[in-house]
Write a structure and sequence with these properties.
- By secondary structure, this protein is α/β, with parallel strands linked by helices.
- It has helices at 19-37, 40-43, 78-87, 91-106, 121-124, 127-140, 153-158, 160-172, 189-194, 214-229, 242-250, 267-282; strands spanning 5-8, 14-17, 44-53, 58-70, 74-76, 114-118, 147-152, 176-182, 199-202, 233-236, 255-256.
- Strands 3-4-6-7-8-9-10-11 form an 8-stranded mixed beta barrel, surrounded by 4 helices. A two-stranded antiparallel ribbon has the order 1-2.
- Helix 1 (19-37) packs across helix 3 and helix 4 (91-106) runs parallel beside helix 6.
- The structure holds ligand C2E and magnesium ion (3 copies).
- Residues 28-278 form the EAL domain.
Length: 289
């Protein structure tokens, strides 16, 4: 038999949870419990995905992406455990651990390769977390000008005043600010205009059908032009095929990230990939129309 839980939400409307939803809630509970007990230093690690400059085929930056190998739950996807860490109230401590690890990794790359680190919604509006991150960055010995912080539109719009203040504090130290998943949130261009952005990352959703869909092409072209007009670097996310690359190049896209170039890699493998790409960088630059 199926078990149903009925709850009143804040408007007094009855919300019915099916057994499936209940299982999901239990799953969240188990994840939060495992997270609270987790040894972040040992169970959390980072993989790195390059952003490639298609003009030179050189690596412009690596984005640090979190992975959690729980001894009890196995590999949990970041979208799941980041949300669980927010709900469990331990995201700040997690982000600080990840930032430390990312900065150590950046030291093993040449100085011209930038590092991108994602902040969660909660991080962006936490003065305490941003204070701690600024200390960690200062103590790391990595030039803050080599670092980009990735924030999503959704995170920023949730509490614009607080987010904007924290973003400004990061930017004042010379840290770059990347707007992640651009085009998926409820962005207001006037808000975008008020943030000290240095990079805009076009969400994968617009790239999937870029080779065949005229509307996706128009949208991407608009974002590329917007980025240029406000002095931002534009990066496309989630590029998987040669056809997509050709279409994106024709729209003026230069910075690209996606499985076509590389999947997120362990730190040891970023060094191997770098050796390969350096030989490409030194080769004559292809003419790309
Ligand atoms: P994101 O920051 O937008 O990262 C891009 C995601 O797309 C990554 O998934 C990446 O592995 C995936 N991806 C890259 N290229 C391709 C492609 O060509 N095709 C497809 N299908 N996917 C591609 P991942 O690592 O599972 O991360 C998912 C999300 O979890 C991230 O989205 C980010 O929002 C969050 N996340 C990951 N690491 C962290 C972290 O350290 N801190 C925070 N706060 N969030 C993180
Ligand atoms: Mg990101
Ligand atoms: Mg993204
Ligand atoms: Mg995305």
């Amino acid at each position: 038999f199926a078990l149903y839980l009925a709850k009143q939400n804040f408007r007094g409307t009855a919300v019915v949870f099916s057994a499936e939803h209940e299982a999901e809630i239990n799953e969240q509970g188990r994840i939060q419990q495992a997270l609270r007990a987790a040894d972040f230093e040992n169970e959390m690690y980072l993989v790195f995905q390059p952003m490639v400059d298609a003009d030179t085929n050189g690596i412009s930056a690596y984005e640090a992406l979190a992975r959690w190998e729980s001894p009890t739950l196995g590999l949990v996807p970041p979208a799941v455990f980041i949300r669980a860490a927010e709900r469990a109230g331990i995201i700040g401590r997690l982000t600080e651990t990840l930032m430390r690890k990312a900065l150590v990794a950046a030291k093993s790359w040449p100085d011209h390769i930038r590092l991108s680190v994602n902040l969660s919604t909660r991080d962006v509006v936490s003065n305490k977390t941003v204070d701690a991150l600024l200390d960690i960055i200062a103590e790391s010995g990595v030039d803050p000008a080599r670092l980009d912080i990735e924030v999503t539109e959704t995170a920023v719009m949730r509490n614009f005043a607080l987010a904007a203040e924290n973003i400004r504090r990061l930017a004042e130290r010379g840290i770059g600010i990347a707007l992640d998943d651009f085009g998926t949130g409820h962005s207001s261009l006037s808000y975008v205009h008020k943030l000290p952005l240095t990079k805009i990352k076009i969400d994968r959703g617009f790239i999937v059908d870029i080779a065949t869909n005229e509307l996706s092409r128009s949208i991407v072209k608009t974002i590329v032009d917007l980025s240029r007009n406000i002095g931002c670097v534009c990066v496309v996310e989630g590029m998987e095929t040669h056809e997509q690359m050709v279409a994106l190049r024709a729209l003026g896209c230069r910075m690209m990230q996606g499985y076509y170039f590389a999947r997120p890699q362990r730190l040891e493998d970023t060094l191997a990939y770098r050796a390969v790409s350096d030989t490409i960088v030194n080769a004559p630059i292809r003419k790309t129309g």
